[in-house]
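Today's session is about reading a structure prediction critically. Students often jump straight to the picture, but the first step is always the sequence itself: look for stretches that repeat, for charged clusters, for runs of hydrophobic residues. Only then move on to the predicted structure, which in these notes is written as discrete structure tokens rather than atom positions. Here is the chain we will use throughout the hour.
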Amino acid sequence: MTAPPNLLNDDGSASIATAFMMSHHGFRRDLARFASALDRVARGDATRAGALAEEWKSFHETLHGHHHSEDTGIFPGLAEQHASVRATIERLSADHRKIDPLLLRGDQAFGTLPEAADVAAAVVRELRALLDPHLATEEAEIVPYLRDAKAFPPPPDDATVALYAQGFAWAMHGIAPEVLEKVSSILPEAIVRRLPDARASFEERCMRVWGTARAGAARTPIPSGGDGWPGSSTAR
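Below is the predicted structure for this chain, in token form.
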């Protein structure tokens, strides 16, 4: 099995590739947590069913937005510049079209928790089975082209600053501090100023949804100890 790529470049710098893979980490982290939480609901603990339903809405929006930005921005630009990656991009875009119906099925199942816990868990399993190879392909074949991009575009207005800060707070949870330090160095100052409050709010959200804000310290897009990742000694 090929080792996952490092979030930072070989010279220790952060890049757009780092932020891109931090999102991958977040998707893997949250799907593992959804699986564990739904198992508890299926066994009769419905105390966080409402919070799980709300968190699924956020997950749906974040994953769909990630793929939309790829299909309308990253992928067309790479396909135009690098003919060798076009076939890979076509396969990845085809995956996106398979993921959207799964997200819609998840909306219905999570919206009727706790009764539909088994259905929601099945959606999460299917989504993980589709996303695991999809994300690995992006990391192997798309990420190398993003390593040299180190300028994050400045947000056009304060509302966008707040939105980006919330998104980075989500993606940063469970990432090693030394990686986060490098990432902050390439972000616009307006976003960096918002991050402490945004990260504190996200930790409160974690407590509400998962019952814990414990996080690992990943240096790759694979979650590490504390993120509920299978095989982690601290997963629970």
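Discussion point for the tutorial: Confidence is low (pLDDT under 50) at residues 231-236.
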